[in-house]
């Protein structure tokens, strides 16, 4: 292996091509406008949520702390990938230095993994609040929530570091063209030379574990929550709870189902690369766009806090 590594020139730059079929100027302009508009709404919604949380001390509870952490994750995930997507949509292809591409891959894996575990943590918080309300204050408080959030971040970066290290053990000697809108682990793996079969399935196993383990726990938590909700005497209260849980599950399903589909499609011969790219784009932008609406802007406490913030701003302007 050492001799093989020395005989293969190292990759210095990588070329991102974007979609294979949507390469005409009109299609690229449409994609650029759609993704840019979505990204601006993501930043607006999540930054607004963070401002509301930090300005209202009554919201400094574990539930809203976790929601604020999700907003930070959504901003980080989209900021890591969307600028590269926009650059790709402005021309036929772009050249990216190898090291920044690897860094982007590490952040993409770590942030996605962190969000999966963070969503499971949010389900755990709701499970305790609804199914074990008498024990909630002892089991979940701000300091404990912050520690659990930190564990999610650590787990995310450990998964990213292990996956990328496995891939970079091999020399990258194939044509330095990546058919994608940003750098990801599969794209790097396709450039590797040598016997990468075991590594490929190991990376797949890590990815599926990251998706399936939190998803199974989330489903378990929501089933228990649903059983508790069914015992609510008020029909209106039951419908409200089911509607809220249903919208949560919609976004979670989009994130996990598309992620699992992308992981598996990489191993299915004949899968369209454009479909895979579109799946990655939806996976990166749809949940961050919908999370502020579903988790927060429809929450009465957030709405009241937002109105108070607007009134304070208007009062400050009148005083001036």
UniProtKB/TrEMBL annotation:
It comes from Erpetoichthys calabaricus (Rope fish). It is found in: Cell membrane. The keyword Kinase does not apply. It is a multi-pass membrane protein. Keywords: Cell membrane, Disulfide bond, G-protein coupled receptor, Glycoprotein, Membrane, Olfaction, Receptor, Sensory transduction, Transducer, Transmembrane, Transmembrane helix. Residues 45-295 form the G-protein coupled receptors family 1 profile domain. Its main location: membrane. The keyword Transmembrane helix applies. This is Olfactory receptor. The chain crosses the membrane at residues 31-52, 64-89, 101-124, 144-170, 203-220, 241-265, 277-297. One of its GO terms (molecular function) is G protein-coupled receptor activity. It comes from the Eukaryota. Pfam families: 7tm_4. One of its GO terms (cellular component) is plasma membrane. Belongs to the G-protein coupled receptor 1 family.
């Amino acid at each position: 292996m050492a001799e093989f590594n020395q005989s293969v020139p190292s990759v210095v730059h990588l070329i991102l091509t974007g979609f294979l079929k949507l390469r005409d100027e009109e299609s690229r302009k449409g994609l650029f406008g759609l993704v840019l508009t979505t990204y601006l709404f993501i930043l607006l919604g999540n930054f607004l949520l963070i401002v509301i949380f930090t300005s209202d001390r009554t919201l400094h509870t574990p539930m809203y702390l976790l929601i604020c952490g999700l907003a930070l994750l959504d901003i980080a995930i989209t900021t890591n990938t969307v600028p590269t997507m926009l650059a790709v949509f402005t021309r036929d292809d772009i050249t990216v230095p190898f090291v920044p591409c690897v860094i982007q891959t590490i952040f993409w894996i770590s942030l996605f993994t962190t969000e999966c575990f963070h969503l499971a943590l949010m389900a755990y918080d709701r499970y305790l609040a609804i199914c074990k309300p008498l024990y909630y204050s002892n089991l979940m408080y701000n300091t404990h929530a912050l520690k659990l959030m930190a564990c999610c971040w650590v787990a995310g970066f450990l998964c990213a570091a292990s996956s990328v290290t496995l891939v970079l053990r091999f020399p990258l000697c194939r044509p330095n063209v990546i058919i994608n809108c940003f750098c990801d682990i599969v794209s790097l793996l396709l450039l590797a030379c040598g016997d990468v079969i075991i590594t490929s399935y190991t990376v797949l196993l890590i990815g599926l574990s990251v998706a399936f383990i939190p998803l199974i726990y989330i489903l378990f938590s929501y089933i228990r929550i649903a059983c508790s909700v069914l015992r609510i005497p008020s029909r209106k209260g039951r419908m409200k709870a089911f509607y809220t849980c249903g919208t949560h599950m919609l976004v979670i399903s989009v994130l996990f189902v598309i992620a699992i589909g992308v992981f598996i499609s990489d191993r299915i011969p004949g899968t369209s690369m454009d479909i895979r790219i579109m799946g990655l784009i939806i996976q990166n932008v749809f949940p961050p766009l919908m999370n502020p609406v579903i988790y927060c802007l429809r929450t009465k406490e957030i709405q009241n806090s937002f109105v108070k913030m607007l009134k304070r701003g208007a009062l400050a302007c009148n005083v001036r």
